[in-house]
Write a structure and sequence with these properties.
- It contains 7 helices and 7 strands.
- It is of the alpha+beta class.
- The chain folds into 2 domains: 181 residues, BirA Bifunctional Protein, domain 2; 72 residues, no CATH class.
- Helix 3 crosses helix 5.
- It starts with a strand and ends with a helix.
Length: 283
């Protein structure tokens, strides 16, 4: 057994997978690229009540009856995947899923059940028959005296700790034989999901930080490049001005040699006065 939570946006494709809907190309839609044996699809069945409407229509109907925050990231659907145990006698397969359905429907309220499709056509070589028990996570808010949608309150830590054992006891009593749901995979299942979510959250955070650092790096690189270009331009201009000054000096020297000698002498005197001044300040 393992649980997943979904937003309303994800439900459409998910419902199509549950009911084995066909796409525009006439082929069955595969959710998550699972292997489906279409020759066995006719054996699938839904244990939820026939309400005379689609899964999406009933989802909308039930959501209109209970309080929920209208935001895109709200998880409005939970889905338990209940897999038949390895040691389950083949003749009790349908009894197993009926018992599992009644356990879940009583636990979460049958009025909140969207569907409970049993798949017998999926991953036959790699896995086993399983049921997708899809429901709206509704809980009674004692403080505000109303029912509300809250996946985090319905599927909380305590629920994950006890549900496997309680389901095992209930189904074992119904079938009058031991049923083992708590195998090694199941015991680690929810922990793996939580760890995977934490890992994905960390990856997403690091990806966001990397994008931001990349943006800052690009901006800084562009800024440095522009400044380096400006420095190169200024150096070229400085060199050009030096060359102009040199040519002007040579021109003046050729036209007014006496004036240039006077200028040079004045410069020499200024340097000497500055040296004397520096010497006197150092004493």
């Amino acid at each position: 057994m393992n649980i997943q939570k979904y937003t309303k946006e994800a439900c459409g494709h998910l419902f199509k997978h549950f009911e084995r809907a066909k796409g525009k190309d006439g082929n069955y839609i595969k959710f998550g690229n699972r292997d489906i044996d279409l020759s066995m699809t006719c054996l699938n069945y839904n244990l939820a009540p026939n309400r005379g409407m689609t899964q999406s229509e009933y989802l909308d109907k039930r959501l209109s009856e209970v309080y929920h925050i209208k935001k895109k990231d709200l998880n409005v659907l939970c889905s338990w995947v209940i897999t038949a145990p390895d040691d389950l006698p083949p003749e009790t397969l349908h009894q197993f899923f009926h018992a599992a359905y009644h356990f879940m429907a009583h636990r979460y309220g049958e009025e909140n059940v969207i569907s409970a499709y049993v798949h017998l056509d999926e991953n036959r070589e790699k896995g086993h028959a399983h049921m997708h028990f899809a429901f709206i996570p509704v809980i009674y808010d004692k403080k505000k005296e109303r029912y509300k949608v809250s996946a985090k309150d319905v599927i909380n830590k305590k629920e994950l700790q006890v549900i496997h054992k309680e389901a095992e006891v209930y189904i074992s009593k119904s079938l009058k034989c031991p049923i083992h749901l708590l195998n090694g995979s199941t015991k680690q299942g929810n922990k793996t999901i939580e760890e995977l979510k934490m890992f994905n959250d960390r990856i997403e955070k690091e990806r966001t930080e990397f994008k931001e650092l990349s943006r800052i790096n690009r901006e800084m690189s562009n800024d440095i490049f522009k400044k380096e270009e400006k420095i190169m331009e200024l150096k070229k201009e400085q060199q050009r001005l030096k060359e102009i000054c040199r040519k002007m000096r040579e021109l003046i020297k050729s036209l007014f040699p006496d004036l240039m000698r006077l200028i040079d002498k004045e410069r020499q005197r200024q340097r000497e006065r500055q040296q004397e001044k520096d010497l006197s300040l150092s004493r």
